Amino acid sequence: MSVILKLRMLSDEDDCFLRDYEVPYESTLEELHDFICNDLQYEKIPESSFFEADRKWNRRREYTHADAGATGSDSSASRCRMSENRLSDILHRMHDRLIFRFDPPGDRAYYLEVIDTAEAGAGKSYPNLLLANGEAPDQFDPEASPRNRSIFEEAMGDYNDFEGDDAYGDDE
Asked: What's the whole-model pTM score?
């Protein structure tokens, strides 16, 4: 039996968005990329990338679709190809993290974390969507997303019901 990673994916644009995925430990980052894009109905753009992340979500090594090239810059040295790197090369412990940058010009991303491991179920196909909550943000236009507010903004929105009502304190 093979090992399956359970990954939780969150968005910093919508607190209600959540996806839990089951992905084979031996999958490449490119396979994970394609699965996420298919699930969210996103275009598979060559500029998207993954980053290893530390506990504070700081970006570390970048994984892209193409070689960074021999430009001699320090940043290209920390890039690797998605197709040549497996999750097993990167994710070794519970709570290890990845950042999936799906909109490079806008620097918008999803945040993935290992939440569990399991043995592959007999007759079950992988990768697999375990849980889906909320709508995915629009791939290219953050303003087009139907829910582009945090929980705080949603709660405070109720206080704007009387915005523009300047009758307060007026004598009748």
From this structure: 0.77
